[in-house]
């Protein structure tokens, strides 16, 4: 199978990676938990440290590209790690995103690589490659795989339904949740509910021999009521 970890891809490589046709976001929903964990969703900007590696001195446009590139990287890693369930459609959805949002992703690549050239000069491209590799590694998870795959799959479906040129909006709305899903989540234990308490089983009759006749019948007159 093709390696989907595409480091530092440009416009041409983005188009080449999109080897699957556009995928409709109407695939079956996959729920990994009986009770959905709270991954603390909420809006986020590209300058937030939670997004990814620091890019000091970045402009607003460069921070937006940084945010978008981290989302793409996370979904790329999910395409590799979440193939254990065919219902997730991890690979198909990711390739659909590359095709649907190719122009915006290519623009983000250009802006972000331009940042590294501007700040680091001749070493810029090498440092951009290092940044991309470390970004991929930052999304790799084993213990939190179920939570990460559930969130990434949901984001991928939303990204496919997002109009072209608006993927950065989805990134701003979902990146916090995607990062938080890298922390292991577990099923919640049973919750005490006083309204569901049942009456306990009544006590059994006494076992004293004198309370029973030879036919095995309990002598209530002699030993009292059984309950």
UniProtKB/TrEMBL annotation:
Look up and give the organism this protein is from.
Answer: Sphingosinicella rhizophila
The alphabetized UniProt keywords are: Signal
Please give the name of this protein. Uncharacterized protein
Report the leader peptide range: 1-30
